[in-house]
Amino acid sequence: MAIIKKPLHASTLARDTSTRSETGASAHSIELQRRRARTLAKQQQAAERIAAATGQLSSGINEAASAAEELRRASDQIAAGAEEASGAAEESTVALKQVV
């Protein structure tokens, strides 16, 4: 029995070519989707890091504002104490002048 080679028909060749191009397009589409997913994941991760840093910065600003308020109150107390000491020094001066 002899081996007979079958000729390729145009329809068979076109069908094989279209199947290959669809598979290639499908693989390309899948690769694009993967790239987009990776890009989206990286963007999401960056957004989360920015949000965490913003939260920490906000906390630091609130802490600094609280410390500034505490410093203002302490300065007010020091100023009141200085005025009281000044008044006492003036009274002492007047009293010394009367004694002398």
Topology:
Elements lengths: L9 H90 L1
Can you describe what's shown?
The protein is mainly alpha-helical. It is 90% helix and 0% strand. The chain is built from one helix and no strands. The chain has one helix at 10-99. The termini are far apart. 0% of the residues are buried.
User: Whole-number radius of gyration?
Assistant: 43 Å
- Could you tell me the mean pLDDT? 86
Q: Kindly estimate the percentage of residues that lie in beta strands according to DSSP.
A: under 5%
Terminal residue distance? 148 Å
* Proportion in helices: over 70%
Which sheet architecture does the biggest sheet show?
Answer: none
User: How many individual β-strands?
Assistant: 0
Report the principal-axis shape.
rod-shaped
Structural class: mainly alpha
- Order of H and E elements: H
Question: DSSP helix count?
Answer: 1
Uncertain stretches of 5 or more adjacent residues: none
Descriptive key words:
100 residues, mainly alpha, 1 helix, 90% helix, 0% strand
